[in-house]
Every structure is written in structure tokens, then in C-alpha cells.
Amino acid sequence: MEICRRGSACSPSSFLFLILFLLFISSSFPSLTLSASFRCHPDDKNALLNIKKSIDIPKDSYVPWDPNTDCCEWEDVTCDPNTNRVTGLEFRMITVFGQIPASISNLPYLETFVLALLKNDKLPGCIPDSFAKLHNLKRLEISWSPLSCRTPEFLGQLKNLEYLDLSHNKLHGPIPSSLANLSKLVHLRLNDNKLTGRIPNSLSALNVELIDLSFNKLTGDASMFLRADGKVKDILLTGNRLDFDMSMVGFPKNLKALHIGGNRIRGRIPEQVTELKRLEAFDVSFNRLCGRIPVGGNMQKLIASYFYHNRCLCGLPLPNKCKS
């Protein structure tokens, strides 16, 4: 039935009928009116609500996840503007009850997951095995937590991972060789843990720009990162028990910072270091190096403390001159 003909006036009874009709639709089918304004996929919303059951979200710093609202507008949640699927989940300064929720793996389009600066110092377990299903994950950061376990082997299955930060935890045991499968990895941070054993040689295949394994209990050789054809720009290995001959290494041409103090490194500093035009830091202090510090490039512009407490290093920027 035509309520109002175009270009003609509508009768009061027609207006009343239209209003009653709209009220009937909105009351009988509320999901139709709500879904039109919600972007979030219902499967993603269910997964997020299951995650909420395991995590305490303080009201003073987070907006509560209200199931009657669009989850793409929730605090700490990011959705893709085109697909409206959840792609990011970032928790900082929160209290976690129990283990990291396995239901996070029910967000198949997740690209970023961050869990950092936890208030609970009794977080048990480790990263759930179900995380291996997050094939779209590009950034995984679980740091500054009491996470205590071995570094999971399954991380090597996350082939799209570009940024891995598991620093400032209580991870123990060896570094898994499966990390060498992460061909897209750019940043690797495993520093400030309790990792032991030798660094896998397979990690030399990584094209990372930054690698930080400092302040663990790693032993043996680390020269796989010191190659003239490498792409790494920042190497941080301070405070381990590494033992190798520096005389035999080469330095990546784009190297900006080498922090390898507090180990058991021996030999001489290669002359090639003077060719590094971007070098800003070269900390080899508290090792067993000997010989003259190479002259040229940026070497004499560096602070003297970078070379302190070695067996017999000499020459600028150190105050002691080399014997002829």
C-alpha cells in the first residue's frame, strides 16, 4: 500500500501508520538496527569477550568492553577499516589472572598482539600453543612480565612475524633454532631473561636489523651476526658469557651500534671497523681484547669507556699509548 504519493501531502493517519510501522520493526527485530551500526565481526566479538573473562581491565584506565557496543570501538582493540576484522590487541599496565588466554588464537586476522608491563608477578605458564594458528601475526610483544618457560619452538611457524619482543621476562633454556624460519623478521628482542646455551648458527640466516640478546647467560660463539654481508644495524649482546675471537669477524657495512661488553671475547679489533660510516657505538668493554684500536673512521670519536677493562687494548680514545 502506498503511504504517501510523491509531490502530495500526507494525511495525519498516514504519518501515524508510518511511525507505528517503524516502531514495530525496531522492537521486533532489534538486531537489524544494531548490526547496521556495528562494524565488528560477531566471531571476533565472541573471542574478545572470552578474553575479557581472563583479564582484569581496571576501570580507571580502560573503557569496559560492553557487549552492547561495537567492539571495533573498544579500548585496546584495532579493526581493519576495510574488512572490519580485529587486527590488533594491545594491553599495557594491566592485571592478568591465570594464563595468557588461549582464546586469543580465535582472532584469525590478528596482526599485532602486545602484553606488557603486567602488575601481576605470578603469571604462570607460557604463550599458549594455540598461538601457532595466528598466521597473520606480524608483531608479538610479551615483555616486562613474570612469564616463566622455555621460548616456544612453535614461534618459527609464524612466518609473517616481523617484530618479536619477549624481553624482560623469566624465559629459560636455549634459543630455539626454529626462529631461523622467520624470514621476514626485522626486530628480535630476547634480552633480560635467563636464556642459556649456545646461540644457534641457523640464526645467521635472519635478515634482522636489530637483535638484542643482552643480559642472559648465553655461551660460545656469536660471530654469526658479525658478517660483512649482513644487514643488521644494531647488535646488543652485552652481559653474557660469549667467547670467540674477534680478529676473525667482519662487520656489516650499515652497522650503527655494537654492544658486546661484559663477555669473554678475545683477539684484536679488525681494521675493517674504520670503514663503518654509520657507526655510533662500539662497546667492547670488560672483555679480553688486545692490540691497537684501529685508527680512522669514527673510532677515535667514540667514548673511551667503550674500550675499558680489556686485557691489553691501547691507543685512542684510550689514554694509554701503544708500545711501538
Model description:
With 324 residues, the chain is of the alpha/beta class. The protein has two domains: 47-220, Ribonuclease Inhibitor (Leucine-rich repeat, LRR (right-handed beta-alpha superhelix), Alpha-Beta Horseshoe), CATH 3.80.10.10; 238-324, Ribonuclease Inhibitor (Leucine-rich repeat, LRR (right-handed beta-alpha superhelix)). Helix content is 10%, strand content 20%. The chain contains three helices and 19 strands. The chain has a ten-stranded mixed beta sheet with strand order 2-3-5-6-7-9-11-13-15-17, with no helix packed on it. A four-stranded parallel beta sheet has the order 8-10-12-14, with no helix packed on it. Strands 16-18-19 form a three-stranded parallel beta sheet, with no helix packed on it. The chain is elongated, with a radius of gyration of 28 Å. Residues 29-36 have low confidence and may be disordered.
Mean pLDDT: 87
Q: Structural class of the secondary structure composition?
A: alpha/beta
Strand order, main sheet: write it out: 2-3-5-6-7-9-11-13-15-17
Number of helices: 3
Keywords: Leucine-rich repeat, Membrane, Repeat, Signal
Signal peptide: 1-35
Pfam family, one: LRRNT_2
Family: Belongs to the polygalacturonase-inhibiting protein family.
